[in-house]
Each structure stands twice: as structure tokens, then as C-alpha cells.
Amino acid sequence: MEIRKVETDKKQHLDLLLLADEQEDMIDRYLERGTMYVLEDGGVKAECVVTDEGDGIVELKNIAVKPGFQGKGYGKALVDYIIQIYKGQYTVLQVGTGDSPSTIPFYESCGFRRHHLVKNFFTDHYDHPIYECRVQLVDMVYLQRVL
Coil, strand or helix: which one is 133? Predict the structure, then answer.
């Protein structure tokens, strides 16, 4: 297993990016200003994008694992890698996600704790309803962990 930074042609991984953020124009808001990493293990299995949000905060904007490879530790390996890379440079790693029973427990298992939420984020910023685990996402939940 190897994790490497993607410096050019980040959109070659659009299929993975869209798993975590299903509207391309929303991805375009952070993709070029962010740093992308891919996890390879006999081919690309996962990706993430990290952005500097100022005030010592780095944000995990997008993390996705290919279907069929989820639940095998690839997502956790990426989060652990990001923690090690940014520890000492930043004080907080944060992530914003929908209030979903499939994502919140994952982040909590990686040491994140609920911090704040942005009401109506998904209904205000996406051109269609977003569902996860048959629940419509409305508010953006931000979780943080100290680096």
C-alpha cells in the first residue's frame, strides 16, 4: 500500500471524488486549491483532498474509497496518513459531512468529535436532494480533532 500526492490532472480521479461529493461544481470549489492524495494497493483504491482553512485548521474536504474496497481500512489509513503529514504544521483537522449513520461513526472512530453544524447546507448548496443511507442530508456537521 502506498499513498502519494497528486500534483496534476486531479480530475482523472473524478469518479472517486463524486462518491464523496456528488456535484462536480461543488468539487471544483476546492479541488485546485486543495492537496490531493491517492492510496494505491494494486491500483488506486481511495483518495482525499485537504485544504488549508486558515487559523491553524486543515480540512479534509473529500475522502472516498472505491466500492468493493470499503470497510477494508483504506479510509482509516488515509486519515492516519493526513494526521501524520499535517501534525506540527496545523493544530486542528476538521471534516464537514452530512449527519449520516455511515459517515459520522467512521470519523468518530478516527478521533474526531462533533464541533458545530451549518444549517441547511445541503439543501441550500446542491441542485438536488442528497441521500445517504436513505436519509436526506440537510445540515453539514463539522467534526474536529486536535493534531
Answer: coil
